[in-house]
Amino acid sequence: MLTDHPSYTSLSDAEKAILDAALTEFGRAGLPGARMQDIADRAGINKAMLHYYFRSKDKLYEEVLTRVVESFMTSIEAALDSEDTFSAQLRALLDAYLRAHMSRPEVVGLWVNENLNGAPVARRLLGPERGARGPRRLLCWIEDAVREGHIRPVDPLQFMITFLGSVVIYMIGMPMFSTFRPELARGGEEEIRARVDHLHTLFYHGLKP
Questions:
Q1: What per-residue confidence (pLDDT) applies to 73?
Q2: pLDDT averaged over the chain?
Q3: How far is CA 156 from the centre of its chain?
Q4: Exposed, middle or buried, 51 (CB in 10 Å: 0-12/13-18/19+)?
Q5: Dihedral sign, Cα of residue 23, residue 29, residue 33, residue 39
Q6: CA 100 to CA 180: how far, in whole Å?
Q7: Which of 28, 36, 37, 149 has the fewest C-beta atoms lying within 10 Å of its C-beta?
Q8: What does the pLDDT read at residue 3?
Q9: How many angstroms separate the Cα of 118 from the Cα of each of 31, 35, 190?
Q10: How far from the centroid of its chain's Cα atoms is residue 55's Cα?
Q11: What angle do CA 18, 186, 69 make, to 5 degrees?
């Protein structure tokens, strides 16, 4: 497990507002560029109240990133547990991961900025000593699929990098990609299904033995 955090629904309205505002600001500017005053303003509170709940910007950032990582892990596990076949699990994973990022595009900025700064917090959260479930579950899923003959031999880590990257680059490049197909910018159900269908075809037929 990572750490025991109160569920989002159990938080006070002020805490929810702070975490939502912090995600937006950290996604926009990263940890170095985000300002506590901007977070307080976006949350609709004064800076003193912000510091009452979170004594430092670093602590607030770690709380935000921890919750994002935990949400990512939960979505991976739920998708894998919801289906029985490799093909159906792959589709469920793609759908869940894409929808999670479409619903909160700030998360993409958070990932990008964290990695541009060397990913010090993410490395701690995902390190083996923290028992991070989701990524290892994804790697084990690929290893099992290879061993059971459902897919051809493939490096599980390379698959995970490609899988995650296929969603992140879609979100990062949306302003540019929509130049060629404006409806992509809508991010509606039709666009989500089209992206999931494309990636499922690409991955599944590329992995079939």
A1: 85
A2: 91
A3: 19
A4: middle
A5: negative
A6: 24
A7: 149
A8: 47
A9: 11, 20, 36
A10: 26
A11: 40
CA–CA distances in Å: residue 137 to residues 41, 146, 199? 39, 14, 20
Q: What is the pTM of this model?
A: 0.86
**Which CATH architecture fits 64-207?**
Orthogonal Bundle (1.10)
106 vs 68: CA distance, rounded Å: 11
What lies within 8 Å, CB to CB, of 130 at 6+ separation is 1, 2, 124
Task: Supply the DSSP string of 107-127, one letter for each residue.
Answer: HHHHHHHHHHTT-HHHHHHHS
- Which structure tokens are listed for 55? 């004594």
* Phi, psi of 30, rounded to the nearest 5 degrees: 75, 175
Per-residue pLDDT of 53-103, as tens digits, reads 999 999 999 999 999 988 888 888 999 999 999 999 999 999 999 999 998
Token reading at 27: 């996604």
